[in-house]
Design a protein that fits this description.
The protein is mainly alpha-helical. Helices cover about 50% and strands about 5% of the residues. The protein has ten helices and two strands, in the order ααααααααααββ. A two-stranded antiparallel ribbon has the order 1-2. Strand 1 and strand 2 form a beta hairpin. It is elongated, with a radius of gyration of 26 Å. It starts with a helix and ends in a 6-residue tail after the last strand.
């Protein structure tokens, strides 16, 4: 009913014309659909004026709270034809992440530093890249230029970090043995004395950032965080006969891998394993 009344009022009033030259003074969502639509179009036009990523990201970072406020308003989330403030706010958040992480690889001198970055902050870049790679619906085409610009920045960061990671890993063929990451079995051993019911999933070849995003979704419905993602290492996938023993609680540090004269692999514990 409000939507019908508001649009009827828009047809009789000229509130939206007041916005001309006044956009910077508007801090709250408006009841007028035409005024809100005019403000959205004006904001996109302002974003198109930026040529450099740093200036654009700084502006988006500053305006994100305002975008979020409009996204939570009637015309942003309850209307039959909502104005896409939500996606604009999401792009602003991604721009802030990319701004913070661009050039981060220049400070890496070891594989360990690269892995610590990715498991703590770098996965957020991948999560943003996923959003930037999704094709927009026809009604959201007015955001395509901003999406394409941010996607180029994401791909540049991806290339730069991958190049440095490859260079660091090429210097040491045994880098996996030296990094400070637990085997899955060692990580499990830390939970063996817990009195709380715990469900643990060990997953191979699963995108780390997707695991983090799933954990966030689970925790959104909880009063306190319940889901956690832990990065682990493995000599080979845990679904293989060699990899499976490395997922046993407390076992990895006791295991020896050998190959028989017949060419068969064998994994044996140095000491008895108590489970």
């Amino acid at each position: 009913m409000f939507e019908q009344i508001a649009k009827t009022a828009d047809a009789q009033l000229t509130i939206y014309t007041w916005l001309e030259g006044q956009q910077s003074k508007v801090s709250e969502p408006m009841s007028s659909y035409r005024a809100e639509r005019t403000l959205f179009a004006s904001e996109l036009n302002t974003l198109r004026q930026f040529n450099g990523f740093l200036e654009l990201a700084t502006y988006l970072e500053r305006k994100q709270p305002l975008y979020q406020k409009h996204a939570q308003s009637f015309w942003g989330q309850h209307s039959r034809s909502p104005i896409n403030w939500r996606l604009l706010a999401e792009f602003a958040g991604i721009a802030s992440i990319l701004k913070a992480q661009e050039g981060i690889e220049k400070g890496w001198s070891t594989i360990q530093e690269a892995l610590e970055w990715y498991t703590h902050e770098g996965w957020k870049v991948d999560a943003g890249g996923e959003t930037l790679s999704v094709a927009l619906a026809p009604e959201d085409d007015d955001l395509s230029d901003l999406q394409a610009f941010l996607r180029q920045t994401f791909l540049r960061i991806l290339d730069q970090t991958n190049i440095v990671f490859s260079e660091l890993s090429s210097r040491d063929a045994h880098w996996l043995e030296h990094i400070d990451l637990p085997y899955a079995g060692d990580a499990l051993a830390a939970h063996m004395d817990s009195t709380e019911s715990t469900a643990i999933l060990i997953v191979d070849a699963f995108r780390f950032e997707l695991g983090q995003r799933l954990a966030i979704l689970i925790n959104e419905s909880e009063t306190s965080p319940k889901a956690f993602v832990t990065a682990c290492k493995s000599p080979v996938p845990t679904m293989t006969m060699i990899g499976m023993p490395f997922a046993l609680p407390g076992a990895p540090q006791t295991l020896t891998v050998s190959c028989s004269p017949e060419g068969k692999w064998c994994v044996t514990p140095k000491t008895a394993i108590v489970i």
